[in-house]
Design brief:
The complex is a heterodimer of chains A (252) and B (434). Chain A is α/β, with parallel strands linked by helices. Chain A contains 10 helices and 12 strands. Helix content of chain A is 39%, strand content 27%. Chain A has a 6-stranded mixed beta sheet with strand order 6-9-10-3-11-12, sandwiched between helices. Chain A has a 4-stranded antiparallel beta sheet with strand order 2-1-4-5. Chain A has a two-stranded antiparallel ribbon with strand order 7-8. Chain A is globular and about 55 Å long. With 434 residues, chain B is an alpha/beta fold. Chain B starts with 8 loop residues before the first helix and ends with a helix. Chain B is globular. Chain B has 10 helices and 20 strands. In chain B, the strands form 2 sheets. Chain B has a 10-stranded mixed beta sheet with strand order 2-1-5-8-10-12-14-16-18-20, covered by helices on one side. The chains are: A alpha/beta (252), B alpha/beta (434). Chains A and B meet through α2, β7, α3 and β8 of A and α8 and α9 of B. The structure holds adenosine-5'-diphosphate and magnesium ion (MG). The site of magnesium ion (MG) has 4 residues of chain A, from α1. The site of adenosine-5'-diphosphate has 11 residues of chain A, from α1.
């Protein structure tokens, strides 16, 4: 089986800055769930931004293969259409743009890429209803402008809802658990668990072990100062819970 | 002895050639006073504070007096008009360089006490209404373009609803302009408790000049939804003055969207003359290329307890120039005034410019007034968010710009059909963005 994502010695920085990622190696296969943990400032969001193609970042060394192809040459929208999905740590509020209108445009762009027919308003609504019941999201959220006036928890749920609609091959969840109370965390985790699929890889970025109680990863990696300093199974996360990141960082 | 400004001579000649002795005396007196005023004032210059950002060179360089006798211009293409008009039941007047095009206009049965038609027809059959329209508003008010309009107008429309009359279908006026100079005079007179929705669409071709004056007079408790959509030819000059007077508890909901014309200006002068009167303006200018547009609302609170809200947004691309000169004037005694004014501008690229001057003049106590202006670019993080969902950059940009402007359309109380109509025009404009 081919690898979905291969990260080779990836060094990256904000344009003009100094390297934030300092040599990341990581291989992810379809069907796997990976957790990337690490202290604040380790470079977790930078890694997700680089993978999603956020402007303003540059790769200074190394490279990334997605489905066997160089990722660097693709713009952020092309990556999304080819199945990479980033659930934002801070989802952006977009006033005046209706959530449903936006999501239908996104879904149709992705479907077009996959060679599927675009959905009209009625078909789209049907698809939305099916996923809503899966995720326990109030329909009311969809009538509002994208993320505008959403609570922290609603924003995160909306991200997972978008993921459910777009059915990506690679989902990167950047601190989807942060700022959630326990009920919201459960709802989001349930949503993610239902989206686990043999054809889909999920990368969960978090700095709390808490999320992993609800979504059990196949692999856990520790990112510290721009490098993966430890990898293991879920027992690594438990270990971290007890002993903290400090000893790993110094070991690196 | 008064000094006549030399640039006004061709207009004086046009006025003299057009003097019509069959017109009622009161109107001829008004016209004579107006042309005299214009000849003394001349065109505004950049030394006039209110015009310092407006480039009138094209008008002043080569005079554009109306032709006399008025050349008969071919009727606008029926297919074009059909594509422009509102759907559904509408009372429609199509004006070709301010003269009515009967074949493309269509009436519906108006209730008793309602009159809707061209200015020329009003002059013939209801001069009393026309006189009322002139009686309630200031004469040209020392404003050269309004004076010139008063001296030279031959067409336009008049809508008058007697007290208590309301009409559920919109009145639609499609103004088509070609290469000519045109001076439409328009009036909307609503008696006590009357209510109406008026949709005006200005469109056309060529490099004409449209100099419009619209008088709005709202009686006690009258309600007007007034929408203006300006999509004139990219070479046209469009100068418009709206003068509204609101009696007690009257409400004036105005939406003005400017997409067209090389040079355009909206002077919107509103007097809140009766207590509890309410004025709302939602405006937008959407500019590209070398376009220049000015919005100059002047809202005067004369009596206590009135409210006004203005939200004017600009989207500026190309090398275009947007200007907002807004004033809220709260006169002595107009206590408990509640007035707000906001101008927001979105610059699409380098090379655009905007001048924004929201102003407050407050001479009363216990008032709630606010004003503000912003100038910004598209939000990069929003752009990335949309792209990260698969939406291409150009579509994402259009979505954000449309989102920025959407609320000025959504806030209109003119009804869903008209709001959709405006949204369609906005979409078309967005589609053509480079
Ligand atoms: N916009 C930015 N400009 C400059 N430095 C940044 C910016 N964003 C993040 N950084 C720096 O990059 C490093 C990694 O940040 P980030 O990837 O957000 O870490 P994490 O998500 O693991 O908390 C930190 O040192 C942070 O200060
Ligand atoms: Mg982060």
């Amino acid at each position: 089986m081919t690898n979905l994502l291969e990260i080779h010695d990836l060094h990256a920085r904000i344009v003009g800055g100094r390297d934030i990622l300092k040599g990341i190696n990581l291989t992810i296969k379809a069907g796997e769930v990976h957790a990337i943990m690490g202290p604040n400032g380790a470079g977790k969001s930078t890694l997700s931004s680089v993978l999603a193609g956020k402007p303003g970042y540059e790769v200074t060394l190394g490279h990334v293969l997605y489905q066997g192809h160089e990722l660097a040459s693709l713009g952020p929208d092309e990556r999304a259409r080819q199945g990479i999905f980033l659930a934002f740590q801070y989802p952006v509020e977009i006033s005046g743009v209706n959530n449903m209108y936006f999501l239908r445009a996104a879904l149709n762009a992705v479907r077009k890429q996959r060679g599927e027919a675009e959905l009209d308003a009625a078909q789209f609504l049907k698809a939305v209803k099916a996923k809503l019941s899966l995720l326990d999201i109030s329909e009311d959220l969809l009538k509002r402008a994208v993320n505008v006036g959403f609570s922290g928890g609603e924003k995160k749920r909306n991200e997972i809802f978008q993921m459910a609609m777009l059915e990506p091959a690679l989902a990167i969840l950047d601190e989807t658990d942060s700022g959630l109370d326990i009920d919201a965390l459960r709802a989001v985790a349930n949503g993610v668990n239902r989206l686990r699929d043999p054809g889909r890889a999920i990368v969960m970025i978090t700095h709390y072990q808490r999320l992993l109680d609800y979504i059990e990863p196949d692999f856990v990696h520790v990112l510290s100062d721009g490098k993966i300093v430890a990898s293991g199974d879920k027992t690594l996360a438990m270990d971290l819970e007890e002993r903290g990141y400090a000893h790993l960082a110094s070991a690196a | 002895m008064t000094i006549v400004k030399s640039e006004t001579t061709p207009y004086l000649a046009a006025y003299q050639a057009a003097i019509d002795t069959t017109e009622p005396t009161w109107l001829r007196v008004r016209r004579a006073a107006a042309i005299e005023q214009f000849s003394v004032l001349g065109f505004p210059t950049r030394r006039d504070e209110a015009w310092r950002f407006t480039n009138l060179r094209r008008l002043t360089k080569a005079p554009m007096p109306p032709a006399h006798p008025a050349t008969s211009l071919p009727d606008p293409d029926a297919g074009v008009i059909e594509s422009l008009r509102l759907a559904g039941r509408v009372c429609r007047l199509v004006l070709n360089n301010s003269a009515v095009v009967a074949a493309q206009s269509s009436g519906v049965d108006l209730p008793a006490g309602a009159w809707f038609g061209s200015i020329a027809e009003a002059l013939e059959t209801r001069p009393d209404l026309l006189k009322a329209a002139f009686a309630t508003t200031d004469p040209a008010g020392n404003q050269p373009f309004a004076a010139l309009n008063e001296a030279l107008f031959t067409g336009g429309f008049l809508l008058a609803l007697a007290p208590g009359v309301s009409f559920d279908a919109p009145f639609e006026i499609i103004h088509v302009n070609t290469d000519a100079a045109s001076h439409p005079r328009c009036a909307i007179l609503l008696g006590e408790g009357a209510s109406a929705t008026v949709m005006e669409h200005f469109t056309g071709s060529g490099a004409g000049w449209n100099n419009i004056v619209t008088c709005v007079d709202l009686g006690v408790g009258a309600k007007l939804h007034h929408v203006k959509l300006q999509t004139e030819s990219p070479a046209a000059i469009h100068l418009a003055q709206t003068r509204a007077t609101l009696a007690q508890a009257a409400s004036y909901d105005s939406t003005v969207l400017s997409f067209g014309a090389l040079l355009s200006r909206e002077d919107i002068q509103v007097v809140l003359a009766g207590e509890m009167a309410d004025f709302t303006l939602n405006g937008g200018y959407f500019l590209g290329g070398q376009q220049e547009a000015t919005f100059a609302p002047f809202v005067e609170h004369r009596v206590p307890g009135c409210s006004s809200r203005q939200l004017v947004k600009g989207v500026i691309g190309g090398q275009a120039h947007g200007v907002f000169l807004g004033t809220i004037a709260v006169r002595p005694g107009a206590d408990q005034t509640d007035a707000r004014q906001t101008n927001r501008n979105l610059l699409l690229n380098a090379g655009t410019s905007v001048d924004t001057k929201p102003e407050l003049e407050i001479l009363a106590d216990d008032v709630k007034c606010s004003h503000g202006a912003t100038v910004g670019d598209l939000d990069d993080s929003a752009l990335f968010y949309l792209q990260a969902r698969g939406i291409d950059a150009a579509t994402a940009r259009r979505m954000l710009i449309g989102g920025f402007a959407a609320d000025i359309i959504d806030a209109s109380g003119a009804g869903e059909t008209i709001r959709q109509h405006l949204h369609r025009h906005l979409s078309v404009w967005l589609e053509h963005l480079p």
